[in-house]
Every structure is written in C-alpha cells, then in structure tokens.
Amino acid sequence: MTAILKDLRELDARLARGEITDVEYTEQRALLIDSVDVVETEFLGTETPAAPPEKRLSGSMTWGFGIVICLGVVGVCLCFAMLVFGDMNLALTLGVTILAALTVALFRSLEE
Predict the structure, then answer these.
(1) All residues at 6 or more sequence positions from 103 whose CB lies less than 8 Å from its CB, including other chains
(2) What are the tens digits of pLDDT across the range 39-77?
(3) Which of 5, 8, 50, 108 is the most buried (most CB within 10 A)?
(4) First vs last Cα of the chain: how many Å apart?
(5) CB under 8 Å to 15, separation ≥6 — which residues?
(6) Do 29 and 11 touch, CB atoms closer than 8 A?
(7) DSSP character at residue 20
(8) In whole angstroms, how far apart are CA 20 and each of 3, 31, 84, 89?
(9) How far is CA 5 from the centre of its chain?
(10) Alpha carbons 21 and 95: distance in angstroms, whole number
C-alpha cells in the first residue's frame, strides 16, 4: 500500500513540475488505483468490555476528606465569629464548639 502512495505522490510531483499533462496524469493515476487488489475482510462481532468496577475511597482518603471538611467548617465559623464578635478567643471557642458538635453528630449517625 505504501508503494502505491509513493507512486501517487510521485505522479503529483511530476504534474506540479509540468513533466506530464493533466490527461496523462489522470490516465496513470487511474491505472495505479486499478492495480490495487481489493481485499475482502470479515469483521467479527466483538463483545463490549464490561464496565470497570467502581472504585471506593480507601480509609485514608475518607479520613483526609473528613479532615478537609472539618477545617473548612472551622474556618467558616471563625470568619463568622470574627465578623460578629471581633474577639479572636471567642471566635476560636465558638469554632471548636461547633466542630465538636458536628463530630458528635457524625459519630452518632455512623453508629446507626
């Protein structure tokens, strides 16, 4: 197949250089294309592959995600408390208290 492509490119180059006319180009191109044997192929039906199994998060990833969520909640609570009260100690106390309440609620829901 690559030999035919090479010959077709050579014909194109000869036409571009003016070595052959358009009529000669068309005749030689038709001869080259007609010389290619058509190969019949049978396509076999294939089964579609099964879907890959779902990946569950490992324990360390779950804990890591939980820690990120907890830090986000503490950050939001600290920002809100600083805006309302303006006292850092009170804001930290409120943030830790809310985080503790959420942790207790999470563990209670896990027990059920």
Answers:
(1) 70
(2) 555 666 667 777 777 776 566 666 777 778 877 877 787
(3) 8
(4) 69
(5) 22, 25
(6) yes
(7) S
(8) 20, 15, 89, 92
(9) 36
(10) 87
